[in-house]
Amino acid sequence: MTTIDKIKSVLSQVLDLPEDQIADGFSSDDSEAWSSLTHLTVILCLESEFGVQFTDQEAVELQSVAKIRDALRSRGIE
User: What is the pLDDT of residue 27?
Assistant: First the structure.
């Protein structure tokens, strides 16, 4: 499973959306289910899935598939 697939899987599970609705350009603006509380769950699940920890500032900014992918790439996760 690729990194993008894993990101989409986490978002799908947390937001209760089918993975095919989560495109590479998907962001928090695209789903009413992605609230501030749900965002914390997204971050915790991503940290668990990829074995990383995001800074508080990063966590605030990780509001799209692209930003999540970029943050993981900066940690050497392709």
Answer: 97
pTM above 0.70, yes or no: yes
What's the pLDDT score for residue 33?
95
Using an 8 Å Cβ cutoff, are 66 and 30 in contact? no
Q: Which amino acid is at 74?
A: S
Helix axes 36-50, 3-15, angle to 10 degrees: 140
Among residues 54, 57, 27, the alpha carbon closest in space to that of 43 is found at: 54
- At residue 62, φ and ψ (nearest 5 deg) are -80, 75
DSSP state, residue 64: B
Mean pLDDT of all residues in 47-63: 97
Phi–psi pair at 54, nearest 5 degrees: -95, 145
Contact in structure between 22 and 6 (CB atoms under 8 Å) = no
